[in-house]
Fold each of these.
Amino acid sequence: DDGGAWCFSCGYRVSGKYLPKPTETPLEDELDDSQWVDTLPSPNRLWLSSYGLDDSDLQRFKFDPMSGRHIYPIYRDRKLMFYEARSIRPGIPKKSLQFGEKQFAPVGLHKTQKVVLVEDIVSALKVGHHAQAVSLWGSNVLPEWFRALRGMRKEVLVWLDRDKYPQAIKIQRALEWIGVRSRVISTREDP
């Protein structure tokens, strides 16, 4: 036993020291957006809209006709750094696929005194109509993100899906430990 740990939910492994979570990152030259289109097909627009996203939110998405997935990209200095792809079509797995290095990318109302951590970008955009929100792209806070959250000087609300409540408590305690005022939001429905 090397003191490591394994998460059966997401496959995250720690071996005595921090190791980054394995991602489905393709080779550097494969992180390419040249096949994407700006217009989402109607079924994807309707699906995203059913979660409370408005037209300005939908404009952030692209569509990959090759994979049949809608894409949420994040660029830094016009370079594609990360994207999440999800399908809603029958016959294509619905699982969100992530490519590149996860990005700390706050969305929504930046002038509020609170920032809300959520699991996915759809929840972040939805919550962003009322507060500033950050998608964790899962249910873990990357170590360097704790520093960014502390630097924001805002209260942090951790609102994960109901099945991740124990993880939300762990995140809240870690935030409190580094001096960030925080609390957990727990609801029957996902954010």
Amino acid sequence: RRHTRYISVTGVQTCALPISTQIIAPSPLVLAEDGSLYLLTVTAGDDGPQPTLTHITPTGEVEWRRSYDPLPAKPLQIGMLWDGGALRLIWVQSRGLYTLRVSPLGEALEPASRLEVGAAVESFAAAKDNQGRLALLVGGPRSDPGIYAFPPGDLTGRAVQVDRLGTRPRLQRDQEGTLHALWVRYPRNFGT
């Protein structure tokens, strides 16, 4: 399916980028300090869906586009954040949570890896806390719910369960910059 993403760059008229993506949800954007943008999409590659990162200059021109190793299946959700030293690409695929660190020039800094959640994954929420650390919440599917959290700024260990009945996590920042975690809890037998 081909979608056109319209991007508004500060000080520049809206630009249209014809990009093929297999994800219907809005593509994640990261605004760099110099006013340029990073856009993450999933394109159809010959060997399967490919995460593709596009760098857009402050004037709205595509400076470069990099594709990474194909995925075995289309991801359910994708996300991207600046982790202080690199771009952190995150996606849910085949009931697992994966990440890839990428330099500001689009070079993969390490192979993509599966994070240790300890349960099936359907969704995630990621944001930077008020100390600049990556906060990551993970949600299981309705059939096997649970909310799991990684320690702030540390994705090397296993996530800890914080709610056994939750799903679909969100992180919301308040006016003071504090992150608040929200998630859904379905009543027993809801929708069955």
